[in-house]
Amino acid sequence: MEYAENILGTIGNTPLVKLNKLVEDLPCLVLAKYETFNPGNSVKDRMALTMIEDAEADGRLKPGGTIIEGTSGNTGMGLALAAIVKGYKCIFVISDKQSKEKMDILRAVGADVVVCPTDVEPTDPRSYYSVSKRLGQETPNSWYVNQYDNPSNTKAHYESTGPEIWKQTDGKVTHFVVGVGTGGTVSGVGKYLKEQNPNVKVWGVDTYGSVFKKYHETGIFDEKEIYPYVTEGIGEDILPENVDFSIIDGFTKVTDKDAAVYTQLLAREEGMFLGNSAGAAIKGVLQLKEHFKKDDVVVVLFHDHGSRYVGKMFNNEWMKKMGYLD
Ligand SMILES: Cc1ncc(COP(=O)(O)O)c(C=O)c1O
Q: How far is the CA of 236 from the centre of ligand 1 (A)?
């Protein structure tokens, strides 16, 4: 018989899938690392489990403890699945711009969800960074995960996602393109791939309203770059420790409209029903066309599943209201 001991045993070893119609104009092979095959339907299951195991190992997380995190949903799902199997409680702090589905899904897997306003400074006591830190200090026997600065986040991708991509492409990968939020995915995968072949190019996909691209290009943290945006999962108004800027060759920014439209196109043209950051990522790949040659093998990572966006990018009323559909 072949079975996993529990649901956590099904994390990782996701497929690599060729993109066809949407990349017709590119000269190279474009492969999607398709992370919705993880049990929580996102790449975040990987780092959630590694963060928990590392915290257990060094005593930060103790038996019966409460896991506290500021999460836009996917990390929360990964943490909640591991918490169920391992017997922990979860409190998740989420910003009010996140889709209602994401909040409901976290509650469905037993978490307490605290909703905070999006449009306040990170240092404001109401921000979701501040509230999650405060809950971490106030709740007995709790552990504040901090996916932004927790090195186990990058480590998970260095140990699993990166080696999988290298093996699945038989070492032929030439470019890795991925949306950047906490930075764990780009830094862990990028570091592993560059260690195997220093010529691999690593591109981050950023949003308008985020500080990453300008910081990478100039070293300046420009507050004028920060304004509210719609795209979910990528871009930041802080510099997380998990973003290793030295691993990243460049950033390309994708507009909210393009990210939303390409989220729909992935579903319609490729049968890939994915989240909003996947739309941004594939548009980012298309924007980088001039960097690709005939024999290149471009891997783009798709973080999460379309079901979390049915009220937004897959709702044409919402798309029209936002001015994203003609
Ligand atoms: C949907 C989605 N896309 C992209 C990202 C960015 O990934 P990372 O945090 O590893 O940079 C996240 C994580 O925050 C996410 O939830």
A: 11
94-142: pLDDT as tens digits: 888 777 877 888 999 999 999 999 888 888 999 888 898 899 899 999 9
Percent with pLDDT over 70 in the chain: 100
Is residue 201 annotated as part of the catalytic site, yes or no?
Answer: no
**54: part of which helix (H) or strand (E)?**
helix 44-57
Closest ligand 1 atom to the C-alpha of 277? 3
| Helix/strand/coil percent split, the chain, to 5 | 40, 15, 40
Domain boundary among 97, 114, 144: 144
CATH number of the domain at 238, please: 3.40.50.1100
Tens of pLDDT along 175-204? 999 999 999 999 999 999 999 999 999 999
Query: Would you tell me the crossing angle of helices 74-86 and 100-108 to the nearest 10 degrees?
Result: 0
- Is residue 38 in contact with ligand 1, taking CB distance under 6 Å? no
Domain of residue 193 covers 7-39+159-321
Q: Find the catalytic residue in 18, 33, 44, 100.
A: 44
CA of 50 to the centre of ligand 1 (A): 16
Q: Which numbered atom of ligand 1 lies nearest the CA of 153?
A: 10
Among positive and negative, which fits the CA dihedral 233, 239, 242, 248? positive
- Cα 283 to Cα 40, 238, 279, 302, 325: the distances in Å are 25, 24, 6, 12, 16
271-307 residue pLDDT tens: 999 999 999 999 999 999 999 999 999 999 999 999 9
| 149 found inside a domain | no
Residue 118 in domain: yes
188 lines ligand 1 (CB under 6 A): no
Give domain status of residue 153, yes or no: no
Residue 165 lies in a domain: yes
Nearest-atom index, ligand 1, CA of 185: 10
Full-prediction pTM beyond 0.90? Answer: yes
**306 in ligand 1 pocket by Cβ < 6 Å?**
no
